[in-house]
Amino acid sequence: MAPMTLTTSPYALRPMTVADLAQIAEIEGESFPSSWPSAAYKRELQRNNLARYIVAVRRDAPPRARSGLGRVVNGLKGMLGRAPEPAPEYVAGFIGVWFMVDETHIVTVAVRESERRGGVGELLLLAAFDLSREKGLPVLTLECRVSNVAAQALYEKYGFQRLGVRKRYYTDNNEDALIMTTPSTEDPAYAARIDELRRRHRERWGVENADLGGWPAE
Question: Residues with catalytic annotation?
Answer without folding.
Answer: 143, 155
